[in-house]
Amino acid sequence: MTTALAKTKSATRRSAGSRGITYHFSSESVSEGHPDKVCDYIADSILDAYLTCDPNARVACEVLCKQDTVVLGGEITAVCELDHDAITRKAIREIGYTQPSLAFHADRVKVLTILTKQSPDIAQGVDHETNSEREQGAGDQGIMFGYATLETPEFMPLPILLAHQLTRGMAEDRKGGNPAWLCPDAKSQVCVLYDGHKPLAVTDVLVSTQHLPDVKQETIASYVRDVLAPRALGRWFREDIRFTVNPTGSFVQGGPSADCGVTGRKIIADTYGGAAHHGGGAFSGKDPSKVDRSAAYFCRYVARQVVKSGLAERAEIQVAYAIGVATPFSVRVDTFGTGDDRAAADFVRKFDFRPAAIIETLGLLRPIYRKTTNYGHFGKPGLTWEG
Q1: 108 and 45 fall within a common domain
Q2: Exposed, middle or buried by CB within 10 Å (0-12, 13-18, 19+), for 277?
Q3: What DSSP character marks residue 321?
Q4: Banded model confidence at residue 121, pLDDT cuts 50, 70, 90
Q5: Is residue 178 domain-shared with residue 93, that is, in the same domain?
Q6: What's the domain count of the chain?
Q7: Which of these, 29, 26, 368, lies nearest to 170 by C-alpha position?
Q8: Dist. CA 44–CA 369, nearest whole Å
Q9: Which one, out of 104, 212, 266, 329, has a CA that is 20 to 30 A from the CA of 157?
Q10: Are 26 and 175 in the same domain?
Q11: Are 57 and 74 in contact (CB under 8 A)?
Q12: In this structure, is residue 370 part of a structural domain?
């Protein structure tokens, strides 16, 4: 029975990946001015500041933003003491919340801090000096995934890649002052038609962008259709794409002035846009002893190596940890019927998934995290796990 079921599942998977089966798949992105991303950026700004003065700092910083208040909570253990208020305001200013009429303004927000030291119960299992195996243990239990696909040069799923290019393009235009009515909060969504694993065309694009009052809806739609989309979508732009722009008709109130933001609520936009599994752990505000972040980065790195080596067209890596234990419970690779699973598994076994090895391989004790926060943690050049 088990063998027959396994064969049926395998055949179904091969069929779903073959030519002739078409379907649509959509992914979304949010801009750096989205309330949740504001929180992520503040958290990663605090993390980078601590790693600058203490590469071995333990940081788990959560952030909540609403109207004129920012709340910092979590646990931080480091050899230095930093000005969290100043770091927070600088991050908000860099995002662009400096409009005088806004409740959420870099110079006027109240910053409430609820930060304690890392629990000694956790530290004794993570620190190699006190760990029972005398090596760095995982900072928590959990499962992490990494994914890579040949469908784009970046080894990323096309829908999330294009969605990020749209929101990043809006941010670049806003910061360049053209058009002058753009404001920081924005979202995009891209729908792609597939034939098996092969993307055929972009069929639908949804963009919602915050704007200044008294801007006509058609002005915003024209900017998206005629200026932003051709540049952001590149060769995937077509005249027959269906565009939906600011479907509510107005998006003047935005950002934390209008909506509450919290760290870790955009984990699908941060990763593969729903095209791969997700273990549930967020990234921002966490130092690399937290395997939620470091192991997810390493799984992406290993998945890329599987695809780059020619062993598969698509690959997904899963790893599982117990808190305080260095060696993973399990490591698994899935090629979705696009390669040799046995050869891929043998290849993946050559990589060291212990936390200390991951940190050393990817150089994760550096203050590199603010540049990961927005427009995806994967598929961007200059990151060691993208090598």
Answers
A1: yes
A2: middle
A3: E
A4: low
A5: no
A6: 2
A7: 29
A8: 6
A9: 329
A10: yes
A11: no
A12: no
Which distant-in-sequence residues (6+ apart) come within 8 Å of 303 by Cβ? 146, 147, 148, 155, 315, 316, 317, 333
Q: Tell me if 62 sits within 8 A of 263, measured CB to CB.
A: yes
Reported as a pLDDT band with limits 50, 70 and 90, residue 119 is: confident
**Cα dihedral sign, 283-286-371-95:** positive
Question: Are the C-beta atoms of 14 and 337 separated by less than 8 Å?
Answer: yes
What phi and psi values does residue 130 have, to the nearest 5 degrees?
-110, -10
pLDDT value at residue 16: 43
User: What CA–CA distance (Å, rounded) separates 319 from 327?
Assistant: 10
**Residue 381 falls inside a structural domain:** no
**Cα–Cα separations (whole angstroms), residue 288 to 17, 220, 282:** 35, 41, 12
Model pLDDT, residue 267: 98
Which pairs from 7-12 meet CB under 8 Å and 24+ separation? Answer: 10/337
Judge if 40 and 116 occupy the same domain: yes
- Is 26 in the same domain as 39? no
Where residue 228 sits, what CATH number does that domain have?
3.30.300.10
> Peptide bond preceding 179: is omega within 30 degrees of 0, i.e. cis?
yes
The residue segments making up the domain with residue 95 are 35-125
The residue among 249 and 130 whose pLDDT is bigger is 249
Least trusted range by pLDDT, from 99-113, 123-137, 230-244, 350-364: 123-137
Question: Do residues 26 and 55 both lie within one domain?
Answer: no
**Token pair for residue 386?**
């993208």
Going along 51-123, which residue ranges are E strands? 58-66, 69-77, 110-116
Rounded to two decimals, the pTM is: 0.92
